[in-house]
Amino acid sequence: MQLKLTKPICFFDLETTGINITSDRIVEISILKVHPDGKEETYTKRVNPTIPIPPQVTLVHGISDADIADAPTFKDISKEVYQIIKDCDLGGFNSNRFDIPVLAEEMLRAEIDFDMKNTQSIDVQTIFHKMEQRTLSAAYKFYCDKNLDNAHSAEADTLATYEVLKAQLDRYDELENDSKFLAEFSSRKKFADFAGFITFNKEGVECFSFGKHKGKLVTEVLDNEPGYFGWLLNADFPLYTKKVLTAIKLRAFNNKLS
Fold first, then answer.
1. Distances (CA, A) of 217 to 40, 88, 99, 206
2. What are the backbone angles phi and psi of residue 240, rounded to the nearest 5°?
3. How many Å apart are CA 224 and CA 84, to the nearest integer?
4. Which class for 101: exposed (0-12), middle (13-18), buried (19 or more C-beta within 10 A)?
5. Are the C-beta atoms of residues 122 and 89 closer than 8 Å to each other?
6. How far apart are CA 125 and CA 137, in angstroms?
7. Given the DSSP bridges, would you call strands 198-200 and 206-208 parallel, antiparallel or unpaired?
8. Any residues with CB less than 8 A from the CB of 145 and at least 6 apart, and which?
9. Which H, E and C letters describe 71-139, residue by residue?
C-alpha cells in the first residue's frame, strides 16, 4: 500500500553519541523523502559530532571517532538538511521521543529556527507497540518477512521503517492512510515541547509537567514568578523547551498589549 500524502513526508533515523537529548550529538543522519506522487529521494551523511563517541556506543552502530574525523559538523550540513525537511511531515521509529528532539536541538544550535507547529509526526514504533509490542528488527521480520541486515545503520533503519509503515497500513484496516491520523495514532501524551516539560491541560492550555509548579499554567507561573523564566533559560533544559517557553511568554505579553 502506498501512502496517501497531501505533502511530502521525510522518514529519518539518527545515529548519535548517546541517548541524552541535550548533550549527545548526531554522528549519522539518513532521510528518505517521499512525495505525494510516490517519488522518493534519499540523503545520508556521516557527521562529526565534535565530541568523542563512547566505545560502547560504537559497538552499537559501528561508527568510531576515526570514521567521522573528516566528516562535516552538523552545523555545516544543517541548511541542506533543513531544505530537505522544510514543509514536510516527519516519520521515524521512536522518533517522537528521540530522533525529532535530538534533531531539533542540533538545528537550534546551528541557529536554524526549527519548529514543529505545522508538522505531523508519525512514530512507527508507537503504532507497532500498540499493535504488536516488538523492536524494529522484529517489526521488519513480522510485517515484511525480511531480515534487517545492517541494523543500526541509519540508512538501513530508515528504509526498514518506511517499509514497515506501508505494511502496517496493508495489515490493519483500522489504520487510515492519512498523515494526520497516523501522527495522532502514533503520538503519546501531547506535549508543547519534545522533552515533555510542558504539557497541555484539558482546555489545551500549556502547563508545567514537573517540579513545584507541576499542573500549573505556564503563563500564570511566569507572571507570578518573573525570576522563574530566567532560571529556566539558564538551567540545563533542551533548547526547544526554552524556545517554547519564550514563545508562550511573548504571546502572553502581546495579549496584554492588545
1. 43, 31, 28, 6
2. -70, -35
3. 42
4. buried
5. yes
6. 11
7. antiparallel
8. none
9. CCEHHHHHHHHHHHHCCCEEEECCHHHHHHHHHHHHHHHCCCCCCCCCCCEEEHHHHHHHHCCCCHHHH
The whole model's pTM is what? Answer: 0.72
Amino acid letter, residue 193 = D
CA distances from 136 to 152, 178, 240 (A): 10, 22, 27
Q: Could you read off the pLDDT of 84-120 as tens digits, one per residue?
A: 999 999 999 999 999 999 999 999 999 999 988 889 9
Distance separating alpha carbons of residues 87 and 226, to the nearest angstrom? 35
Report how many helices (DSSP H) and strands (DSSP E) the chain contains, helices first: 10, 7
CA 1 from chain center: how many Å?
A: 25
d(CA 50, CA 31): 22
Would you say 65 and 54 are in contact if contact means Cβ atoms under 8 Å apart? no
